[in-house]
Amino acid sequence: MFERSAGDSTPRDDALRLLARREYSRAELAERLAAKGHSQADIGECLDELAAQGLQSDTRFAESFLRSRLFRGQGPVKIRLEMERRGLDPEEVREAFAAGEVDWQALACETLSRRFPGPGDSPRERARRERFLAGRGFDFDQVRYALTHAWSADPDDA
C-alpha cells in the first residue's frame, strides 16, 4: 500500500497523528507529510483515502478555522487571506463565509471596545484605533462603523 520512507511511519500514521490534534487543510497535510520524507504519490493516495473516509475535510477545516478566528476578533480580510494561504481554494473560502453568517460590524465594535475604553480624544488616538481594527482585518466600512458605535449602549441603535 504505502512505502515506508520516513522511519517506520506511513503517511497515514503521520496524518492521523496530526489530525488528532486539530483540523488541517489538504494542502497543509501534504506539506507536513512531505517534510517528513514521504513521497508525493503516497501522500496523494493517503489524502484521497482520508478524505473519502471523512477523516480530512477542507470544508470542515474552513468552518473550524473561521470560528477560531472569529473568537479572536479578526475581520474578514485577514481571515480570507489566511484561509487562502493555508491552501483553500477561493470557492471553499466563499462557502465558509456564506455558511457563517457573521455580523462583521458588531464584531468590529466588540473587538474595539474590548481593547480600548473609549473613542479617543485626539486625532492621533482615533487613528490608533483605526490601525488596530485594520490590522485585525476589518475593512474601511466596518472600521468607520465601529469607531462611531463601539461604545454606545446598543450598537444597533444608530
From TrEMBL:
RecX first three-helical domain mapped to chain residues = 12-50
The protein's superkingdom reads: Bacteria
Which keywords does UniProt give here? Cytoplasm
Subcellular localization(s) per the UniProt record: Cytoplasm
Q: Which residues form the RecX second three-helical domain?
A: 57-96
Q: Which family does it belong to?
A: Belongs to the RecX family.
Q: What is this protein called?
A: Regulatory protein RecX
- Native organism is Halomonas icarae
Give the gene name.
recX
